[in-house]
Amino acid sequence: MRNKSVIGWLLAAPLSLVLLVFLVAPIVMIVVVSFWGATEWSIYPAFLFDNYEFLLTSDVTYRVFLNTFKYAFITWVFTLLIGFTVAYYLAFHIRTLTWQIALFLLCTIPFLTSNIIRMISWIPFLGRNGIANSTLISMGVIDEPLEWLLFSDFSVILAFVHLYTLFMVVPIFNTMMRIDKSLIEAAADAGATGWQTLWHVIIPLTKPGIMIGTIFVVALVMGDFITVRFMSGSQSANMGRLIQNDIALLQYPSASATAVILLVTVLILIGTLLRFVDIRKEL
Amino acid sequence: MEPRPKSFYFLSAFFVLFLVFLYGPTLTIGILSFQGPGGGLTFPMRGVSLHWFRDLFEQQAVGDIWGSFSRSLVLGLMVMVTTVVVSVMGGLAFRKRFAGSTVLFYLIITSLVIPSILISLGVGLIWSQSGLPVHWSSSGFGAQLTWTLPFGLLIMFAVFNRFDRSYEEAARDLGASPWQVIRHVVLPIIAPSLIGVALFGFTLSYDEFARTLLTSGSYNTLPLEIFGMTTNVTTPVLFALGTLTTVFSLLVIGIFLLVVWLLNHRRARQGSDAGKGMV
Known about the structure:
Chain A is mainly alpha-helical. Chain A is built from 15 helices and two strands.
């Protein structure tokens, strides 16, 4: 037994080393620095609660905190609905494996290209004189260009859904492909309608995939700062934006305190979700 | 074959719309990057030209994009190789329980869900406070690994979940040493999946922004350079650059898919059953 553990440790050593230096140590460092003090141009070691006190007594923090959850929730709803539908179509309506793989790859490819470029690519579409506005005007739906298409909550959530729906499609598709097709035939034989089969057989069996997708989407949206900054034109904020702002002002202790609160929130949320799914078993 | 239900046509339409949603914007900037010299950031097209692509080769118009491209390329290859090697070793380790494996597993999950800016901030702080030079090939390299390794390991977990162990037992019964089992049985069977891990390692690194933000030092990687451009460049040269890097990403993906296809093809031709050891 002891010998087996040694081989396991040796194989896991590089992984552990990377995670120790670039994950654990940075988290420890952030927690430590969150108690430090700062002047306008430097930071100094101390043990102060000022950063937390300032954060927790400011209205802005709570508004931004709420906004972070709002983005996460709305994005989750849309990615789930779209992701589930796409995965369901691929898993149950496409009949040959070759086509399933081909269409699945088609969905996956954008994920492997640059997020920033994918955000930039909404500009010609959503801008004041963009495709959406000029189409709507020429169709006579509106007289004036809509101002809220770009640089608004709408465009932020649109970009999130655009970037992250794939993280729902992949795990849900993976779980659906493992569903025994005879269960669906059995449901049909027992007289279930399509909707009943969907609701009582497929959705319950797909829950692990939905959970994994949810974990991805929630973590990505709550930790984001660049999409919110770019797509809202710096007009909206989430926790990540607060951190980034402080960093830009060299206020690292205050940034660290916000980071600690964000990290604790995300870990509690993900920890709760993990109770409903055994990730290793579902892969 | 039984006839398609009505829902099939409805869902097909939905799927097509989804693809338009996914690819439409990227195709739009692809078209707009051929905008004439007097054209702006949206339609109408004022002529068709390669003007903006030419601009990419002029230093003063766009800054150091070719330098940042070569840095991103080298960094991507470094991250790719490391991700494959470390993920395979980690995947092999996790096939048996070892003391501390549960903790390590939760660290991997944490690495996946932790907001990227925290890695950037934490690594940046450690480097600056200990006086180490912040550089894309040291701090930036490690910061990116915290993003690519979890994906590599999740793929390895999925692979080993489906791995048929009787092949290994057969090799052991024939007297193969543990190393020979890995080298001649396990690795050939999992090879196609390793190409997937390599593809993720490279593209995730090549496109990574947040984790490199505070860890790359004074020399930018390409995503950082592009983001810098978004704040001060208001001409279609931005779209030209976007089109070029997207084409590059597509080429990389194409090459990886081709390699997988060739591997499978060669196996089928030689009648080898390696790679079939998945259940």
